[in-house]
Amino acid sequence: MVNETWREAISAGILDGDGEAVAGAAQQALDAGELPLELINGVLNPALKEVGDRFDRGDIYLPELIMAAEAMEAAMQVIQPVLLARQETVSRSGRVVIATVQGDIHDIGKNIVSALLRANGFDVLDLGRDVHAVQIVTKAREFKADIIGLSTLLSTTMPYCRDTVRLLDELGIRDQFKVFIGGGPVTPEYAVSIGALYGGTHAEAGVQNILRALGRA
Questions:
Q1: Which listed residue, 27, 98, 118, 123, has the most CB atoms within 10 A of its CB?
Q2: Which residues contact 106 (CB under 8 A, 6 or more apart)?
Q3: Which domain covers residue 191, as residue numbers?
Q4: Cβ atoms of residues 51 and 60 within 8 Å
């Protein structure tokens, strides 16, 4: 059980989006003998879930959501070396390859999703923006991904999401990946029409949908 002082300090830092405070409190907790896995599973993850719940209720907005995810990452930068030294590992949620599709250079939403996925225990390979379907599929195979995440903010680039799904079909490996698509113009109906899953209306919803698709939420 994590000491209540560290629990309160770390939780408050996550909720406030204060990465420096969270990292400092996590380091102090480790120095005091707290176990890294207990900090992650017992403090960091519940605090981030609370942030997601607040976002869903409309109590906080996108900037606060981003700051909380970044604070979580700051804590993990402190905790991860200790995990490695103890030869412990965090129970990973899955492996994700994510990209903004060909022709689209918008990546803010994708970056938020990537940060939240990492904070929720996923191994994430972010390919960046304006990425061709062939590269996405190639990297997904190399990375042994469970999930392919496709982002598009332009209606004109939505067809490139379909190209990725078609390529998976042509290669006979469609059943190896769950393909999620998201972005401003994307609708649940469009996702279904191309054989993909709908990411959601915002980043936290996307993470929860991915967790549900993997049977982990």
A1: 98
A2: 100, 129, 151, 153, 154, 183
A3: 94-213
A4: yes
In this structure, are residues 77 and 25 in contact, taking their beta carbons and an 8 Å threshold? Answer: no
d(CA 8, CA 185) in angstroms, rounded, equals 40
Could you give the number of structural domains in the chain?
2
Q: Is residue 68 domain-shared with residue 102, that is, in the same domain?
A: no
How far is residue 200's CA from residue 118's CA, in Å, rounded to a whole number?
18
pTM tops 0.90? no
Q: What is the pLDDT of residues 172-187, one digit of tens each?
A: 999 999 999 998 889 9
Instruction: Please report the DSSP string for 175-199 in residue order.
Output: GG-EEEEESTT--HHHHHHTT-EE-
Q: Are residues 108 and 197 in the same domain?
A: yes
Terminal alpha carbon distance of the chain: 23
pLDDT in tens, 128-174: 999 999 999 999 999 999 999 999 988 899 999 999 999 999 999 99
Angular region, 90: left φ>0, alpha ψ -120 to 50, beta rest: beta
